[in-house]
Amino acid sequence: MPLIYDGPLHDGPLRQGEILAGVSEYRVLPNPPGGYLVGEIAHPLVVALSADCDLVQEHVARLTLGSPPGEVQPEQEADGRIVPHVIVCDLFNEETVRGRPGLNSDLFRRIRRNQDERYHTLPDPRSAQTPPDARPQLFIDFRKALSIPTTSLYLAIEQKMIQRISVVPHTYVHDLIQRFFAFHSRVGTPD
User: Fold this and answer.
1) How far apart are CA 49 and CA 180, in angstroms?
2) Among the listed residues 90, 65, 86, the one whose alpha carbon sits nearest the alpha carbon of residue 75
3) Among the residues of the chain, which ranges form H helices?
4) Pairing of strands 119-121, 85-92
């Protein structure tokens, strides 16, 4: 069954499985000699993995606090309904994944079939009815998860710096979330 993405959202809460374009992460980086600077790291395409119920309740809470979602004050963040960060994971195209060092054809075959615990492949969205410029097959590397401040996401969406692209259908999100948290809940060993 081909994947048919739900249409992009134009307003309302962020959604679990929502694909966003143009997300930036800011990190404090060393700046020799002995100083620091804030560096921007671009994440061209990410998928939101935070729970839908938390994101919806959080959005409503921001609105009831009397501020637009991108303008919550620090003292309002103490409200138990506020989610300070949204968990996201980078999305990659096939060329990027295939080009990783040490990734041979056997491993890529397992990745493509969702048989490798570190990676998740969204089903190919293309079909006979899909235009040729449709979204390519997307791959997720669960090690490439990060959290982005929720207020920053809403503000960047409002200012059109981040685009809300589409939402992975619920039937596919369930498997994605189960696999993501299974990967992160494993008991790691030093070797």
Assistant:
1) 8
2) 65
3) 52-64, 94-98, 105-112, 150-158, 170-184
4) unpaired
Angle at 143 between CA 45 and CA 90, to 5 degrees: 0
In angstroms, the Cα distances linking 153 to 37, 67, 73, 124 are 22, 15, 15, 28
Q: Hey, how many other C-beta atoms are within 10 angstroms of the C-beta on 168?
A: 24
The full set of domain ranges for the chain reads: 18-184
pTM: 0.85
Tokens 């696999």 -> residue? 179
Distance of alpha carbon 67 from the chain centroid: 25
pLDDT in tens, 116-152: 999 999 876 654 445 555 557 899 999 999 999 998 8
Give the closest residue to 47 by CA, choosing from 36, 55, 59.
Answer: 55
